[in-house]
Q: What sequence folds into this?
């Protein structure tokens, strides 16, 4: 279930324009092009799934939005305000608005501080309430993620992995942020608790009208949680569409490849997938990006133009963006999709 | 109520870990004994006045007996009384040095570790390296030689040569803790540098600091004794263990008790603090696991 509110045109929360983040390497003049021209818009109440293999730049994109890295180029607009700087130069009030849940709660909670102290940090930093009020707010936050209130006296090592992630979620929500970045929030957890975390995240999103930037390498998870999905490859978004559209009508060969490699159990599920495009090769190093389309060395439909020219992002249907040469001359896997 | 029970349980567990090694318990008993003796020296010692400028040539150079447990020195002073009084200087030295050096050295290491990759880090660590390159005793000797020989000055000299070890230790810890995600989480939340340094990073560096501190007490006492051995420390007539050993060395071997007993006292002090330190290390190391 998603927010049924009719969106107004000015409901944009975050806009990323041609964002680039290059990291220097030991060799002079050679850069790791982790994020290489990413643009997207995130509306209030939306869950944008940012999907890609490891090394595709999805986490770097998120961290740059968060201000952990300074962008090399491009703009990040938050509520219409340019925030394309590192954390050090962002105003305190902005840090209240954008929060993150990290992948592994084992390393994102300080082992020498109690849960109560951990949850108290964002409250104290932003001077929310008096000491007693903060204590109440900590209890409230624990209740929000359905943890016992007396957990505030426990140390992270004394509670389970799923519970720790709930604490990390509570910490992210402590300051009532409008944007929460979820950096693979379930991939370090046991399968048994993953569903619980996802359900909690979605419940909170509905109830608190949160906006999520949900980073994951798990495309099938996105089907259930995201309103829109952007697929990243080698620092670029290669396809972006609303979730039903992306799953029903994947246009980029890479998206098709990802979808066809989702393992399924039943025939019925198999039928929902595009015909198998065999996944070949691995993502190239972002240090030597192939010329032309970054995906062409692995693409089964590559043409001569693909290795020469970089395709531009094109809106093929309303809200469905694809970066592929083949779309002009018809959809490459058209015959195979349906 | 629940809190105090929890504390008692934690203390019980810590004691269990500590006491698993019998020698640490021996160390603890000896250290407590030494501290009590030093504190109560004027009361427990048979001849408290012998700790100062006292002369009794009639009873000079007496071998150990029931009246003079460790014998008497060339001025007829009771060596036992003087040894116990000398504990005071040795303990003041150790406490004074560690109280100065641990916060200072740790703070510099913490800052250098947090600001890794900056000029501040390079500046702090290169200075640390320079000091680390000089052996502590040699450096302390050189500094002492420039100053008037007093207990305070020898403490300062040891401090100067001791802080870099803590900087180095905490630097290494802070560098690795710095890249933990909980530090990033605090930064994203907008926490101040002071909060991150002292609340997020420092608590995770405490165990090795405590361990090193406990083991260092003995070493500082040894270096202090070394300084007073060459006459750079507490000045006569106030007793100092190193001075007593070196004064007595002139009369070896026939007046052996003059240096042998203070030397044994140094050994017992260093040994008991090291045993205690080992116990504390085991306690904290297993607490972490």
A:
């Amino acid at each position: 279930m998603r927010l049924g509110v009719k969106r107004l045109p000015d409901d944009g929360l975050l806009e990323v324009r041609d964002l680039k983040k290059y990291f220097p390497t030991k060799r002079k003049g050679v850069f790791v092009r982790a994020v290489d021209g990413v643009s997207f818009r995130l509306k209030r109440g939306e869950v944008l799934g940012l999907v890609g293999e490891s090394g595709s730049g999805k986490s770097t994109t998120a961290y740059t939005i968060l201000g952990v890295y300074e962008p090399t180029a491009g703009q990040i607009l938050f509520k219409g305000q340019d925030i394309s700087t590192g954390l050090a130069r962002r105003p305190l009030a902005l840090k209240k608005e954008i929060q993150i849940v990290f992948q592994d709660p084992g390393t994102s909670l300080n082992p020498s501080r109690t849960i109560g102290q951990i949850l108290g940090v964002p409250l104290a930093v932003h001077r929310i309430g008096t000491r007693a009020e903060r204590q109440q707010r900590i209890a409230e936050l624990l209740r929000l993620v359905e943890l016992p209130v007396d957990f505030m006296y426990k140390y992270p090592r004394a509670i389970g992995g799923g519970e720790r992630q709930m604490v990390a979620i509570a910490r992210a929500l402590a300051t009532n942020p409008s944007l929460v970045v979820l950096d693979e929030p379930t991939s370090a957890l046991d399968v048994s608790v993953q569903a619980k975390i996802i359900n909690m995240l979605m419940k909170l999103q509905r109830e608190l009208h949160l906006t999520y930037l949900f980073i994951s390498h798990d495309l099938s998870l996105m089907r259930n949680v995201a309103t829109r999905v952007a697929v990243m490859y080698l620092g670029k978004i290669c396809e972006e569409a609303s979730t039903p559209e992306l799953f029903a009508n994947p246009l980029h060969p890479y998206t098709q490849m990802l979808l066809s490699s989702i393992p399924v159990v039943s025939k019925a599920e198999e039928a929902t997938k595009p015909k198998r495009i065999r996944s070949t090769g691995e993502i190239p190093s972002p240090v030597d990006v192939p010329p032309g389309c970054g995906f062409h060395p692995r693409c089964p439909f590559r043409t001569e133009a693909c290795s020469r020219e970089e395709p531009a992002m094109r809106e093929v249907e309303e809200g469905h963006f694809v970066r592929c040469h083949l779309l002009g001359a018809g959809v490459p896997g058209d015959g195979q999709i349906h | 109520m629940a809190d105090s029970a929890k504390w008692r349980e934690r203390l019980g567990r810590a004691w269990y870990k500590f006491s698993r090694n019998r020698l640490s318990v021996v160390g603890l008993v000896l250290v407590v004994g030494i501290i009590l003796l030093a504190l109560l020296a004027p009361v427990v010692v048979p001849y408290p006045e012998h700790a100062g400028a006292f002369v009794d040539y009639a009873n000079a150079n007496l071998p150990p007996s029931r009246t003079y447990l460790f014998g008497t020195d060339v001025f007829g002073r009771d060596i036992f009384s003087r040894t116990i009084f000398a504990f005071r200087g040795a303990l003041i030295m150790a406490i004074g040095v560690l109280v100065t050096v641990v916060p200072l050295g740790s703070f510099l290491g913490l800052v250098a570790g947090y600001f890794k990759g900056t000029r501040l880090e390079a500046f702090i660590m290169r200075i640390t390296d320079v000091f680390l390159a000089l052996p502590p005793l040699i450096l302390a000797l050189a500094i002492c030689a420039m100053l008037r020989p007093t207990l305070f000055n020898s403490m300062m000299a040891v401090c100067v040569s001791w802080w870099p070890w803590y900087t180095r230790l905490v630097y290494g810890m802070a560098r690795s803790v710095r890249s933990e995600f909980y530090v990033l989480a605090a930064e994203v939340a907008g926490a101040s540098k002071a909060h991150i340094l002292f609340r997020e990073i420092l608590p995770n560096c405490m165990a090795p600091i405590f361990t090193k501190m406990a083991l260092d007490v003995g070493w500082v006492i040894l270096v202090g004794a070394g300084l007073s051995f060459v006459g750079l420390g507490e000045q006569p007539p106030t007793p100092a263990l190193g001075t007593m050993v070196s004064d007595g060395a002139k009369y070896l071997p026939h007046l052996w008790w003059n240096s042998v007993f203070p030397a044994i006292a140094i050994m017992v002090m260093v040994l008991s603090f090291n045993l205690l330190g080992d116990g504390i290390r085991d306690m904290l190391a297993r607490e972490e696991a």
Remarks:
- Chain B touches chain A at residues 180-182, 184-192, 195, 199-200, 203-204, 206 (CB under 8 Å).
